[in-house]
Amino acid sequence: MKFLLVEDNIELARAISSRLRLDGHVIDHAAKLEDASEFISTGEYDLILLDIMLPDGDGRMFLKQHRANDLDTPVIILTARSQVSDRIGSLDLGADDYITKPFDHAELEARCRAVLRRKAGKARSIFEMGGIVFDPVAGYLVVQGEAVKLRNRELRLLELLVNAQGQIFSKQKLVDRLFSYDDDVSENAIEVYIGRLRKHLEGSNLKIKTLRGLGYRLDHEQ
User: Fold this and answer.
1) pTM of the predicted model, to two decimals?
2) Which of 127, 157, 156 is CA-nearest to residue 143?
3) Mean pLDDT score, 109-130
4) Contact 16, 108 (CB under 8 A)
5) Number of Cα atoms under 13 Å in the Cβ half of residue 3
6) What pLDDT sits at residue 131?
7) What is the pLDDT of residue 157?
8) E strands, 83-178, where?
9) Distance between terminal CA atoms of the chain?
10) Is residue 132 classed as helix, strand or coil in its secondary structure?
């Protein structure tokens, strides 16, 4: 998954980013609301982690503005404010969850998973289809009863394709979703990951199709 972290405390931002990257997530970091707006205008995110008190404004007003502009990306508020009125106000403005600093990183990870499950309309994170069992949270894939070891990028690529089965993804779109803004990567890297994932899915009814000039699509063949 690709997250946008909006946090001006650099030490905290590094700690959060490092922890989430260990789970294979891609993190873009903005220390100001101006930078966050730029990221949102040029990229697509699965989740936004948003601080309230930022150098150039209030994160809640940022949230209100973007909800008014039909931004439906899930948002978790990160803040030192613990009053009930603050929590209620943030949720009423469109936040999906709220966590008070200081927090345990394991709790933040759990809240991220819960919000993403709700967004997808799922109570659990496990996918069973086409002869595979796939759990992106635990990081395992079973194909026709055989466990398959996935690298982080392969794991997130499969998660992206499974969550949007039948949708076409161009190479550039996959680059945008699998790598951070600062990563120097070419579209050729996508071909490598697609090739590896195809080998992992051999024996199942899930096929990654190439649509010439358009991109890739995950199909469930009967």
Assistant:
1) 0.76
2) 127
3) 81
4) yes
5) 27
6) 92
7) 93
8) 97-100, 127-129, 132-135, 140-143, 146-148
9) 28
10) strand
pLDDT in tens, 143-186: 999 999 998 889 989 988 998 888 999 999 999 888 888 888 88
Claim to verify: residue 134 and residue 105 sit in the same structural domain: no
- The CA distance from 42 to 99, in Å, is 27
User: CA 157, CA 134: separation in Å to the nearest integer?
Assistant: 12
- Taking alpha carbons only, the member of 91, 110, 108, 90 closest to residue 99 is 108
Same domain, 133 and 60: no
**Separation of alpha carbons 154 and 125, rounded Å:** 17
**Domain range enclosing 64:** 2-120
Contacts of 30 (CB under 8 A, 6+ apart): 4, 5, 6, 7, 36, 38, 39
- Based on the fold, state whether residues 114 and 207 are members of the same structural domain: no
> Would you call 170 helix, strand, or coil by DSSP?
coil
* Encoded tokens for 69: 């502009």
Contact partners, residue 165, CB within 8 Å, separation at least 6: 218, 219, 220
